[in-house]
Amino acid sequence: MNWTRSKIIWIAAAIIVVNGFFPAVWILLTSFKTETELLQVPITYLPQAATLDNYIAAFTAQPILRFMWNSVVVAGLSTALCVLVSALAAYALTRLKLPHRNLIMSLLLAVAMFPLISLMVPLFKLMRELGLLNTYLALILPYTVLSMPICTLVMASFFQDIPSDLEAAAMIDGCSRVGALFKIVVPLSAPGVFTAAILAFVNAWDEFLLALTMMNRVNMRTLSVGITLYQGEFAFPWPLISAALIVAIVPICILIAVFQERVVGGLTAGGVKG
Amino acid sequence: MTETSIVKHKDLSERTLGILLLLPAALLLLVIVVYPIATLFWNSLHSADPNNPQAEELFVGLDNYTRAFVDDRFWNSTLKTVLYVVVTVPGALLVGLGLALLANQPFRVKWPVRLGLLLPWALPLVFAGLIFRWFFEYKTGVVNDWLAALGMEPPQWLSDPTLAFWAICIAITWKASSFMALMLLAGLQTIPRSLYEAAEVDGATSWQQFVEITLPMLRPAIFVALIFRTITAVQTFDIPYAMTGGGPGDATETLAMYINKMTLDFLDFGYGSALAALMFLISMVATSGYLRYTRRSAARSGE
Amino acid sequence: MKLYKLTLAALLLLAFPLSASAQTTLRIFTGGQQRPDVMRKIADEYQKKNPNVKVEVEVGGATSEAQQQYLSTVLSSKDSVLDVILIDVIRPAQWAAQGWAEPLDSYLGADKAKIMAQYLKAYADADQVNGKLIALPYFADSQFLYYRKDLLEKYKRPVPKTWDEMMDTAKAIMDGEKNSNLQGFSTAGAPIEGTVCTYLVPLWGAGGELTREGKLNLDAPQAREPFQLYGRMKQSGVLPKNIAEIPTDRIRIDMQAGNLVFGMTWSYVWNRLENDADSKVKGKIGVTTLPHDPGGKSATCIGGWQLAVSAFSKNKAETVKFARWLSSPEVSKMQAILASHMPVFPSVYKDPEVLKANPWFSEALLVVEGAKSRPVTAQYPQVSDVIRSNMNAYLAGTKTTDVALGDMKSRLTPLFR
Hints:
The complex is a heterotrimer of chains A (about 270), B (about 300) and C (about 425).
Chain A: H1 2-30, H2 35-39, H3 53-61, H4 64-95, H5 101-112, H6 120-129, H7 137-159, H8 164-172, H9 177-188, H10 190-206, H11 209-214, H12 223-228, H13 238-273
Chain B: H1 5-9, H2 11-44, E1 46-47, E2 58-59, H3 63-69, H4 72-103, H5 111-122, H6 125-135, H7 142-149, H8 161-189, H9 193-201, H10 206-234, H11 238-243, H12 255-265, H13 269-302
Antiparallel strand pairs in B: 1-2
Chain C: H1 2-15, E1 24-30, H2 36-49, E2 53-59, H3 64-76, E3 84-88, H4 92-98, H5 105-108, H6 112-117, H7 121-126, E4 128-129, E5 132-133, E6 136-142, E7 144-148, H8 149-154, H9 163-177, E8 183-186, H10 194-205, E9 211-212, E10 215-216, H11 225-235, H12 248-256, E11 260-265, H13 268-275, E12 285-288, E13 300-309, H14 316-326, H15 329-339, H16 346-349, H17 352-357, H18 361-369, E14 371-372, H19 380-396, H20 401-412
Parallel strand pairs in C: 1-2, 1-3, 8-11, 13-14
Antiparallel strand pairs in C: 3-13, 4-5, 6-13, 7-11, 7-12, 9-10
């Protein structure tokens, strides 16, 4: 019994890791190869003569650390703002008696249904009128709104399941309603809040079109746009771009891994299971 | 019926509080999207003269919409989009559910598995598309390398309409299942262990536990995930754009790709906006089923 | 709390736009692939000569598409942030129609004819739309036939003049070399802009035209020629099997790896083949005019980049002055030496310093002088889309000649009324 259990766990881990890591590992291997090696038929898997040149080039050809800082600021702040605003909205929509709840929910959803591409020109005009072009707010505000529907829905689906007695108990202990939201509801929904945060963060981290349009100064570019600057009109230098991609992915992974183990692990352990 | 009387007589303040809590979201929406969306509808009723695009745009009523109805390319790209939705939404759900169940096993160290789930999601869409194009490349792609190793004739994945469609579906499913798994894993983590322990005492098999406990408890998470996967699938753009550019011919072109072309390439903002409004309708239709479900369940719980 | 402080600091630091200065600041937009570093050097030179002007180089997305996405948004909003913009040679007509480019005729005044006569004719033509000067040429480009000198010598074959000669030669070399990786001929086949030229070059080489006097001319027998040519090449195995997946740079990659006898591609390839450390074909490459039909004349697509003055610029006089300097023989020469960009003035090709840096420019001039424009119309993006997607479908084998040509005709007809 014990043996099969651990075997299942190992197989499970292997499937997830291979499925998730394969393209990333492919990129990692490519980042140590030369362009010549990529031309070979049949293809090679492990680098034949590993080189760090691509990483050196990735750091010298473009200000990638600056791109990363921009991405961290934009994604971080928009995530924080989005989670906060969405948590309040989700709470109002699930735990308070409000008229037209479903209408509000549907309106929120409808926002997600418009392709960003066709909102581009008016959004650009708007940001120009507000004088926000080339500032972080030009991305933080739209990213917050873009992720708001999903964050609200995710959190709402978690808030719904929290027994109202817990909240009532807290309020009897002298907690305000908003206090109960942050002391009881949010911690108990930690996996949901965490998921919402990841979704918002990655949405912002990946976004390309807005980032390309709102930030036209090189030192305000975010990573997703910055990486495309390594390519030429025709040429697509995979080894160099792979190195840049690895540089771009690693921090987000570390961030999430640490966050997951320390913060959420702690919260869930203390919350639901306790 | 568990609502206490304290709450009941606070009804008015509860409503005020609710409005206050919704205010930040409403304000942001108002500033950031209401104006662009209104512009979109306004544009969709106007058209510029292609021979004199600088002149004032003319009000053309619903002409842009009727134009879509006789536009083969609109229908073709819509059909392709629907096919991507039909294949990749259930595909991503199944794969994502599988991954989430696997990831919910009690690993001692959680982060490698968590990362494995996250990596596809963390890889920017455009690059995911480019990487998969490379995987499906005729000569230097891994897929054909494996097929050749198995002694099969390597096909030209991206220049055959059917194969290209499936290659794109695989890439989308791979990318989207990560999102699904994340959402579902969060749902799985809130299911109290005690439910399973009780079921085990009752002698339920793991399949029975899955059907009787896991699925019903996961339902809200599944629905939220499905709604968003569907909305994103209707907007499928980056992956086919990077993998085939819509080719061969325009066999793999999606509605979003057509809108993109119409708006930023052809600069026909009027027709492009009408197509975007139609896409919005398609999203509405595609998600209305889920919404009806949530409304019903909300009504039930509100009783 | 740390995060909060960091956030606040970051917001304060970056919410400030660049501070205004007493000088005139001009912003020039260039794509990432048009050597922004060289543009910076050239701009520095200009600043030295004009101390009252400060030039900022804005680098847009790397590909022509990414740039267009950005420019469409900014210019549709009539934004004044950009003064000079580098645009693709296919764009002046669209820019003229949209009113994005300031017509330059009045700035040139009576000298216009004299000034324009100094440029390569193809560019002087491409930048004037309905008699109005929309942009000034910055650097030239065109497609060439790249070939393996060593292999032609080994098999004692002359440099081919016609398509059939080229096919025979390619076939003979492929058969002789017995290297399964060696391909005879390659050109762009994916649904991208370059594939428009894949159709147009053999059409022109057969004496055909896409339009004649502004009317679509695809009923002419030559309109079938490109399809039939590639059909024959595909059948004989000269063309790669996956030709419909081939983007522009794949031709360079295959050539560089020694896997290609002939390739039809742009000028940037030459430097990579000769200078890249990993090139297997250094000193083995020749460049010549593209093949044609026995009765026809060799032709090629022009490429290259033009300087447009934004119609929304707030400093038009200073901007035009800067643009005119950028479009001068002096800068053309700097570009040729620093970036191997092909000059837009025939005279510069003969400059000894330029030739020392780019010995092959002596042959290139001949090719560029025979280069033709892709159709000049405000709706070029639509035209391009029809041609490339049908050519691509034909190369992929999903459409026959009749279907592809028929679709091309029916979709192009409304665009050329």
